Amino acid sequence: STRKESSAASDVYKRQGDTVSELTPGKSKGINIVKWNYSMKQPKVAKGKTFSFGGFTAPTLPAGSYTAIITKGKDSFEHSFDLIYDPKSTIAMSDRKLKQEKVMELYNMIEALAYDVYCVDEYLAYAQREKNSKLSGKLNALKETMVITTGDNYVGAAEPQLRENMTSLFQRIENNYGAPTPNEIDNLQKIGERNIRVQEELNNLKKKYKLVKRVEMKTVEQFLKSN
Questions:
Q1: 38 Cβ partners below 8 Å, 6+ apart?
Q2: Cα 130 to Cα 136, 190, 215, distances in angstroms
Q3: N or C: which end of the chain has fewer CB within 10 A?
Q4: What residues contact 40, with CB distance under 8 A and at least 6 apart?
């Protein structure tokens, strides 16, 4: 737990400077306690017609060196610490490393897809402004393979698409204690191959319709930091 006054901000970093978790302080006066469960930020998930519940998963950080920084006004306070695995655990280190590798592969894939869907939405808005029905049709057809675009969270649920497949597998692997199963690794490979095909199709549309020059976009970094 980290003790701090209200209106302060608290972040956890890897020693090399990457932010892995951002903690929200309480709003009451006096001393507040912020609890951290050794997890990193949830991945930014593509917008769709329904929730993607697997995307609410926050991966547990691996053992290593970290720094907590509490900031209040112009003052900041740092505390470095190490996370270690339970020495009594029977989980092999090789299994932990394989799990972490596959979880982060999916984590990055989920965020990359989120950016691609953002791009598709921006290009759709452009196509509608230009009354380009052909481009709109191709973009909509592509988006339908990326995320659920019909129904809602209660009735008329559509078939899961790439986002749903990614986040579901992401949640399943993260929630297991040991290494991913051979079936899960096989599914990950298939999802990765499908994602590459989606990216190739989007890149082809960008080139064919010169979308990069005609539509102003956020960078990946700007997009991931936005709400």
A1: 60, 61, 83
A2: 10, 36, 12
A3: C
A4: 20, 21, 58, 59, 60, 61
- Residue that the structure tokens 């960078």 belong to: 219
DSSP 8-class letter at 31: E
| Tally of residues, the chain | 227
3-state secondary structure of 79: strand
Distance CA 41, CA 25 (A): 16
H or E segment and range at residue 75:
strand 75-83
DSSP string, 163-192: HHHHHHHHHHHHHSSSPPPHHHHHHHHHHH
Specify the amino acid at residue 51.
F
Write out pLDDT tens, residues 27-58: 777 777 778 889 998 999 999 888 788 888 99
Residue position matching structure tokens 């509490």: 70
pLDDT of residue 6: 38
Interacting residues of 39 by C-beta distance below 8 A, sequence separation 6+: 21, 58, 59, 60, 61
**Closest C-alpha to 57, from 187, 174, 205, 136:** 174
Whether 4 contacts 32, CB under 8 Å: yes
- Helices 133-146 and 182-208 cross at an angle (nearest 10°) of 170
What is the pTM (predicted TM-score) of this model? 0.87
Structure tokens at 140: 């909509």
